[in-house]
Amino acid sequence: MKLSTNSILILLGVIALMVMACFPITLFAMPLINSQEPEQTDPLATVQAIVTQTIVAMTQNAPTQTPIPPTATPLPPTLTPVPPTNTPLPTATAVSYCDWIAFVKDVSIPDGTNLNPGETFTKTWRLKNRGTCTWTPDYMLVFVSGEPMGGTTAVRLPGYVAPGQTVDVSVTLSAPDKRGHYVGNWMLRNQYGVLFGFGDRANQAFYVDIDVVDLPHGEVAGSFHYPSEFNPPLILYFENAVTGELIQFSIPESNPNYKVLLPNGTYYAYAWAPNYNLQGAYVYDNLTMKPFVVRGGQLTSGINLTDWSPYPHSRGQ
Predict the structure, then answer these.
(1) Is the pLDDT of residue 173 over 90?
(2) Which letter does DSSP use for residue 76 in this model?
(3) 317 band by pLDDT with thresholds 50, 70 and 90
(4) What does the alpha-carbon distance between residue 102 and residue 125 come to, in Å, rounded to a whole number?
(5) Mean per-residue pLDDT over the chain, rounded
(6) Angle at CA 240, nearest 5°, toward 214 and 248?
(7) Which of 54, 65, 117, 264 is 20 to 30 A distant from 73 in Cα terms?
(8) Does residue 134 contact residue 162 with C-beta atoms inside 8 Å?
(9) Cα-only R_g, the chain
(10) What pLDDT is recorded for position 175?
């Protein structure tokens, strides 16, 4: 069955009404109002055009959605390198003590000095006041350990010694009677009885260090003091005070002095003038003979024969 033009138009009108139910009438009425003469067009194309225009109009009139910007995820903060702090490393606190010694040197009797048995000597140290307190004459040089080397164990300082100053301190000692190596330790003591020395903690002792060697002979020297301008020929005697052994020397005329070598020991000394029957001797004030000691390698001087008498002298102690 063939559709007439009017049937087609009726069908299109029904379709248009259906479209108008979904879209505003003005969207498709405007072209009909403006069209004065109907044109012979393809009905399918007309419907497609109406639908297309409707979609375009809807698209143009639709509210514009402003896109939401993406949320910016904050980047982690950049780790700026921290410059090193120029903080100086801690330094050790300087230690100081009120009483403190700096050892300077041995003035006499250096370490390892050879001495004879029983020899008397003077040991001297040079010390510096390294502390913060002044040393006074109330400060003492004292023996603390080792070999005492005699009866002296304490000596008073000679004067005031301010911080930074030096002082020589001395003590008179005697070498032991037996061969060997000996060390005696000494320190200073303040007025409160506190000992101190040298070293990082002011607690080290300074010392005397000797070697005792047993030399077999020593020298003896003296004068005759004969009661005339010139002495006659003499016989000089040395009597061992322990054994009684006699050692004698011939002294020529006009020799007022002598020096002889004797074995170690304790002796009495006297001389005899044969032609005058006079005896001279080394005596005490009470005119008894005075003993003396001869030590190996040591000179014993001052053994002077002063008292001349026709009578023999008795032995003193």
Answers:
(1) yes
(2) P
(3) confident
(4) 11
(5) 82
(6) 105
(7) 65
(8) yes
(9) 65
(10) 92
Task: Give residue 244's region: left, alpha or beta (phi > 0; psi -120 to 50).
Answer: left
Using a 10 angstrom Cβ sphere, with 0-12 exposed, 13-18 middle and 19 or more buried, the burial of residue 184 is buried
List, in sequence order, every beta strand (DSSP E) within the chain: 101-106, 113-115, 120-129, 140-146, 154-156, 166-174, 180-189, 195-196, 206-212, 217-223, 234-240, 246-251, 257-263, 265-273, 278-281, 292-294, 299-300, 307-309
Report residue 228 as tokens.
């005339």
Amino acid at the residue 60:
Q
* The amino acid at 203: N
Q: Write out the two tokens for 282.
A: 């080394």
Place of tokens 């008397």: 120
- Closest C-alpha to 292, from 304, 310, 278: 304
Q: Looking at the DSSP assignment, which residues form a beta bridge with residue 249?
A: 236
pLDDT digits (tens, 9 = 90+) for 246-255: 999 999 999 9
Q: How confident is the model at residue 34 (pLDDT cuts 50, 70, 90)?
A: very low
Say if CB 233 and CB 263 are below 8 A apart: no
Q: What tens digit of pLDDT does each residue of 111-160 get?
A: 999 888 888 999 999 999 999 999 999 999 999 999 999 888 999 999 99
